[in-house]
């Protein structure tokens, strides 16, 4: 099936835009870099959101297979809360930002493992099928505080990662405000909150599930490829 044929319509939401993710928004991930965050090529911790893009070719529905290959024998599994933009957002304040979110879903943000977080090549982040979205959306009104949620990642039904979203350097409202200070987000766009520290890796034959309290669960199965 052509990825453009996938239907990401969960009334009254239609995920038609682009997905943006922030690098190193998790406080524990930044601290794990230690002194290296002050050395080249970083030279200093990020002073503004550093974004990467997950374009349409990456979208897949929960439960679909992810292929490994000889060149990509394993994937880094980045679970994240996905903020679905409900109306045009441009230079909004943090105090108003949550009003621009239509709903939330769970994302499995897959990356080709790489050592450096500095300007990652698009070939690491935008591979076909490298974004798994949960098969449902919860309304923003049903989540009182998105930063109070907990994310858990399971590999073959074993808990391998657990992180509270209040560990994010920029909480949901602040991240949305800071991003829209330099770019406009449109209805249907998705802004990932960020990946908690300790993202696991998965290989062929393994199953992954990412769950977020009150939001839902996304699943992916990893299979061997022909490459």
Account of the 3D structure:
The protein is mainly beta. It has one domain (3-224): Fumarylacetoacetate hydrolase, domain 2 (Alpha-Beta Complex). 11% of the residues lie in helices and 36% in strands. It contains four helices and 16 strands. The chain has helices spanning 27-33, 94-97, 122-125, 172-180, and strands spanning 9-10, 13-14, 19-22, 51-54, 59-61, 65-68, 74-85, 101-111, 131-133, 138-139, 150-155, 158-164, 190-192, 201-203, 207-212, 216-224. The strands form three sheets. Strands 3, 4, 5, 7, 8, 9, 10, 13 and 14 form a nine-stranded mixed sheet that branches. Strands 6-16-15-11-12 form a five-stranded mixed sheet, with no helix packed on it. The longest helix has 9 residues, at 172-180. The radius of gyration is 17 Å and the shape is globular. The protein starts with 8 loop residues before the first strand and ends with a strand. Residues 1-6 have low confidence and may be disordered.
């Amino acid at each position: 099936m052509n990825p453009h044929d996938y239907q990401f319509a969960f009334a009254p939401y239609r995920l038609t835009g682009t997905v943006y993710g922030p690098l190193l928004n998790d406080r524990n991930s930044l601290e794990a870099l230690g002194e290296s965050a002050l050395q080249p090529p970083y030279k200093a911790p990020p002073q503004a959101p550093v974004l990467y893009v997950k374009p349409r070719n990456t979208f897949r529905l929960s439960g679909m297979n992810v292929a490994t290959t000889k060149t990509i024998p394993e994937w880094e599994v980045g679970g994240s809360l996905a903020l679905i933009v409900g109306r045009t957002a441009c230079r909004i304040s943090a105090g108003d930002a949550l009003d621009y979110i239509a709903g939330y879903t769970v994302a499995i943000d897959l990356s080709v493992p790489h050592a450096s977080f500095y300007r990652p090549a698009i070939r690491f982040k935008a591979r076909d099928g490298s974004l798994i979205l949960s098969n449902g959306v919860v309304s923003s009104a049903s989540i009182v505080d998105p930063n109070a949620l907990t994310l858990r990642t399971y590999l073959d039904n074993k808990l391998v990662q657990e992180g509270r979203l209040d560990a994010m350097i920029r909480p949901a409202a602040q991240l949305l405000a800071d991003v829209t200070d330099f770019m406009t987000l449109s209805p249907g766009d998705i802004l990932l909150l960020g990946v908690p520290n300790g993202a696991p890796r998965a290989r062929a034959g393994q199953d992954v599930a990412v769950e977020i309290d009150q939001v839902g669960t996304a699943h992916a199965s990893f299979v061997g490829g022909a490459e």
